[in-house]
Specification:
MCH/BMMD, alpha+beta, 10 strands, Thiol Ester Dehydrase, Chain A, ten-stranded antiparallel sheet, globular, lyase activity, HotDog_dom_sf
């Protein structure tokens, strides 16, 4: 006699499975090793000195070199995918992101998210869910937090639409909301080792920087990245999950590639501490050549010795002229892949 039992596999949540106030405790905790840094630097041309050299980090007041800020972000983000975006159509945006503590080799990170918003789309087949996610270390300290919103399919198109709840989010973090790592001191900053002489005072609000270099996205590296960060969203792995039969390049892969390309012109923009907002403007697929440009949006001094904060817009493109972002209709140009607004720390 054949016995039946409840399904033991996880097909992921759909739009109708979320309720505002839900708290999602994500599996599986992960202990950070030197492998994360090595693989991150192999996937991207990442060269910022603070994340490359223990000696440079110690000279800057830290106990040793942390893992890259975006590596920590990807690690936490990946934990959320099975519970938040496994059945996503697209990840739509970010807000109120803050890096609260550096992450070092040996730290163990876990993640949890709270559903803070929900709204069904007019087509009745999809909806948008907002979550606030925290990455937490082995001492129960929050190392980073951010809000993101994602478009999800409905499993049952006849399921009733929930009452919409759209969270009010800060468009820009103020400087006093940024957390400067304890002990950070750029008073004895070594510009020669960092790779460029340009400091905080050399950048003007409104200035735009063409980062010149380009990198062609390969299918193999993208698949390695999604596996490294355990991002199992179907649109990244399964060619049957998209109508055109292509894999969608993980948006975090584009963010890290653009950030690495920005080294040429912003080598001293060492630590990302705030994420004001971000949009994956158009899909990225393998074979595209990614280039990047930045715009200085704001500047502020901080209480840390020798440390200034600079707010940047980082734009990743696939072709087209630099410094072109939107058309006359106000929509992103089709070659724009990423529009990211963030705060970074730089020597005065």
């Amino acid at each position: 006699m054949t016995k039946t039992s409840p399904a033991k596999t996880n097909s992921g949540r759909f739009f109708e499975d979320y309720t505002v106030g839900d708290v999602l405790h994500h599996a599986v905790p992960r202990t950070v090793s030197g492998g994360e840094r090595a693989l991150y630097h192999a996937l991207y041309p990442a060269r910022h000195a603070l994340y490359s050299s223990d000696e440079f980090a110690r000279r800057s007041g830290l106990p040793k070199s942390p893992i890259d800020d975006l590596a920590a972000f990807h690690l936490v983000f990946g934990k959320t995918v099975p519970d938040v975006s496994l059945n996503a159509v697209a990840n739509l945006g970010y807000a109120e992101g803050r890096w609260l503590l550096p992450v070092y080799e040996g730290d163990t990170l876990r993640a949890e998210s709270e559903v803070i918003g929900i709204k069904q789309n007019s087509n009745g087949k999809t909806g948008v869910v907002w979550v606030r996610t925290r990455g937490i270390n082995q001492r129960d300290e929050s190392v980073l937090e951010y809000v993101r919103w994602v478009m999800l399919r409905k499993s049952d198109v006849d399921a009733p639409a929930p009452s919409p709840v759209i969270p009010e989010l800060n468009k820009v973090l103020s400087v006093d909301q940024l957390v400067i790592p304890q002990g950070l001191d750029f008073s004895n900053y070594d510009f020669a080792q960092a790779g460029e002489l340009h400091r905080w005072g050399d950048y003007a609000v409104g200035e735009k920087i063409d980062h010149v270099d380009g990198v062609t996205i390969e299918e193999a590296e993208h698949m390695l990245a999604t596996r490294l960060w355990q991002n199992t969203a179907k649109v990244h792995f399964d060619t049957t999950a998209r109508p055109d039969g292509s894999r969608l390049i993980y948006g975090g892969h584009v963010i890290s590639m653009a950030r690495a390309l920005s080294f040429n012109g912003l080598a001293n923009a060492q630590m990302i501490v705030g994420l004001n907002g971000g949009a994956h403007a158009n899909p990225c697929t393998s074979g595209m050549t990614v280039r990047a440009w930045s715009e200085v949006l704001d500047k502020a001094e901080t209480s840390a010795p020798g440390v200034g904060a600079i707010r940047l817009r980082l734009v990743a493109t696939a072709g087209g002229e630099p410094f072109s972002l939107k058309g006359e209709d106000g929509k992103y140009l089709p070659n724009v892949l990423l529009d990211l607004d963030y705060w970074v720390l730089m020597p005065l």
